[in-house]
Amino acid sequence: MNSYYQVIADIEEILKDEPFINSVTYGDPDVIETVKQADHPIAHVMPGQAQIADRVIILSVSIILMDIVDYVKEGPNNEQDVLNTMLSVAARFDAEIKRRGIYKDKYELQGSINCEPFNERFENNLAGWALTFSMALKNDMTSC
Q1: pLDDT digits (tens), the chain, 144 positions
Q2: Rounded distance, CA 25 to CA 35, Å?
Q3: Residue 121 per-residue DSSP state
Q4: Residue 87: closest CA among 105, 65, 67
Q5: Chain centre to alpha carbon of residue 92
Q6: What are residue 130's phi and psi, to 5 degrees?
Q7: Would strands 56-68 and 126-138 be described as parallel, antiparallel, or unpaired?
Q8: How many Å apart are CA 65 and CA 80, to the nearest integer?
Q9: CA distances for 106 relative to 2, 23, 45, 68, 71, angstroms
Q10: Residues 6 or more apart from 143 whose CB is under 8 A from it?
Q11: Which of 94, 91, 100, 95 has the alpha carbon at shortest distance from 3?
């Protein structure tokens, strides 16, 4: 079953090709704290639960899109700019993952991508959007 590899590789490739993302990380969210400031904005990919059905596996995926908020002593910070840019990244990701799933016929997005904003979630003054969605992966395993 190569569908899992394919969907994770496509997610990472889409995010690496994004002009407003400088680095892509994977797995444990503790990795986010170790990313250098120069490597921001970042996207962090986390596979979640999977449900196995007859001919399909439903995989939950979370992606955190984030950048550093520049806090200044006087005047506004750039938090709204960060949220705006990362939401645009999320919208482009949505369009591209749908296109690739249809083209490769190994997976497809189930429903829509939910986006939840955050700020000060991590120690590095990061803000952005947490995306959650499910992918239906082709299950080629047989019962024989």
Answers
A1: 578 898 999 999 999 999 999 999 999 888 887 888 889 999 999 999 999 988 899 999 999 999 998 877 666 688 899 999 999 999 999 999 998 877 667 889 999 999 999 987 677 789 999 999 999 998 876 665
A2: 9
A3: -
A4: 65
A5: 11
A6: -100, 120
A7: antiparallel
A8: 14
A9: 8, 26, 19, 35, 44
A10: none
A11: 100
Q: How far apart are CA 15 and CA 53, in angstroms?
A: 29
Residue 69 sits at the vertex; the CA angle it makes with 91 and 132, to the nearest 5 degrees, is 35
Predicted TM-score of the model (pTM)? 0.89
Is the CB of residue 68 less than 8 Å from the CB of residue 40? yes
Quote the CATH superfamily of domain 3-138: Phage minor tail protein U (3.30.70.1700)
Distance CA(126)–CA(11), nearest Å, equals: 22
Closest CA to 138 of 72, 53, 69: 53
Domain spans in the chain, listed from the N-terminal domain onward: 3-138
Q: Which two tokens stand for residue 32?
A: 């986010």
What Rg, from alpha-carbon coordinates, does the chain have?
Answer: 17
